[in-house]
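Reminder to self: tokens first, then the designed residues, so the page reads top to bottom the way the pipeline ran.
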């Protein structure tokens, strides 16, 4: 059974940085595209970034490009989301995804 365990959320101030981690067990991590999504209060879940098995990356250009960096370590079955210059608008629950499976979603709260 595939399981995703996320960590790294928290409460920060505007301009701060955070790194989210998502470790996958029970699946062939290295062959799958990994993605991060987020869901702000009262809004739908939206795409943030994705990274293919070979390291190709895609970002939601409207909101996070140049501030967020997605990466992966296949030796650790882990995908990361490095977030810098955080804004209050980045406040959301962040979810990682592999295939049809979702992480539990750590909360990221950015105060102004």
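Designed residues (112 positions):
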């Amino acid at each position: 059974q595939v399981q995703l365990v996320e960590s790294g959320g928290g409460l920060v101030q505007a301009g701060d940085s955070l790194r989210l981690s998502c470790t996958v067990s029970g699946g062939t991590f290295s062959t799958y595209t990994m993605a991060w999504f987020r869901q702000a209060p009262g809004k739908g879940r939206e795409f943030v970034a994705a990274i293919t098995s070979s390291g190709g990356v895609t970002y939601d250009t409207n909101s996070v490009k140049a501030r967020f960096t997605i990466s992966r370590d296949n030796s650790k079955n882990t995908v990361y989301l490095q977030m810098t210059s955080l804004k209050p608008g980045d406040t959301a629950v962040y979810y990682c995804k592999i295939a049809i499976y979702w992480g539990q979603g750590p909360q990221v709260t950015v105060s102004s």
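The mean pLDDT is 93.
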